[in-house]
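User: quick one
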Amino acid sequence: MTSFDGERPDHEALLRELVGSEPRRLRSDHGDVIVVEALSKRYPNGTEAVRGVSFGVRSGEVFGILGPNGAGKSTTIGMLGTLVLPSGGRASVAGLDVVAQRREVRRRIGFAMQEVGVDDLATGRELLVLHGRLHGLSRREAARRAALLLELVGLGEHAAARMGDYSGGMKRRVDLASALIHLPQVVFLDEPTEGLDPRARAAIWAALAWLREALGMTIVLTTHYMEEADRLCDRIAIVERGRIVVSGTPQELKRAARAVTLEDAYLHSTGQALEVAA
Amino acid sequence: MTTATWLLTRRTLIQFPRNPMVLGFSVPPVLMMFVVFGALFESVKRLPGLPTDNYFEYLAPAAVLMTTVPGIANAAVGLASDFQSRYLYKLLTLPVSIGSIVAGRLLADGTRLFIQAGAVLLLAIALGAQIAGGLAGALLILLLGTLFGIVTFGVLTANVALKSQDPQAVQSIFPMAFLLIFLTSAYQTEEQVPSGVLRGVIGLNPTEYVLRAMRDLTLTGFEWHSIALAFAVIVGLGLVGLPLTIRNYRSVYR
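Assistant: Done. Structure below.
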């Protein structure tokens, strides 16, 4: 498994220790864990960010939402993560309505946001322990998982440092770790590897793939990176101007477009290139 | 208190020492104001009607309010800062209500102000003031001052923070805290206020009723009627502020 630097301990052993007591409890065979029906969002300024999208995500699946800036990816994932109120349609996560049962949905999800929000005065360890405790973990279990997750994302040595002193990449990694502290049934990742160096990005991919395999975690992610989507996602929805243009497995998308790469398939579907963030 | 509120209160309490500006600059101005005002207005005690020979004794409850009422706005500044850093949105992805987030901030700053207002009372005692209600009376003075700060300026500024999500907007309403306190019998008795209009305003200011209970505890001891009235004012203001705050919770969601 890829590591953040050459001298890290065995990440697979860390992951095994992390999930040891929760073997495959997250996977459910009862159909779609996420159901989205005609979901829409119009902001008070009149912007129609999402225009009646519908899709389902199966339990244990990695589902990618791809599209250019302003396509409605973050708004869609924000509505599923209970941060944005839908204007129309409905959505459920783990059988729970994202508006009416907001608090219950939050117990079952982890959310790493595009614009990372961390508490600059807290240390990385304090943040993870607090989030674990707010999810109902005991102090001891929260501390145990915090130590493992910080080690996993390469921040073990910085666990006691205040996050105000962290770099942007370190903040993104601690934010991602905090989304996993309660080993959620569903993880929403909004541009999870934005701004990370290639090694860190590869390590995150490997960790997510491992957690998905070990726990049956369902993962919904938005990304600009075609390689990320191709490598991680079981199915992909390409969105543009608030609508799903096409969806399917990466192979299906490429086959339908007679394309070699996912980016070519995207270009074929939408007629434009993705705007890759700097 | 819910577990989430306690965990979020604890988070802020742990972080106070990491922000020395909050601790270092919140009490000295009040202490200086207390000493300066006490010296400047000392001659008030020669006017008829002041119920004590020691003006610092008369001024002490007002100094407690000067600590707790403006000081509680720090909770709202913290809340608005959490919006700006986007950490508040991260908290909202957890099974935590906005009520717990707001209450956590207010209770942590309330705890800090309870202790800091205690330092003001200790200075008053050092300057010759006596607390007729004894230690229990002093603790009740601090409790009344802290609770009043929370339900008035604390709730007001928290709502400004929820609506504006901007620390500067919160700071811009600081002067209102002083207005709340100045329009009372904080510095001279109501009878010594020359304007009938001002006396009428003082009679309408809820701060006056809490201040009277605190002053009674300082000068005469436990006057249960005034203490009950003060708590009634605090509960009443809380009942007004709570629905307003809950209404503003929704504005947090985009």
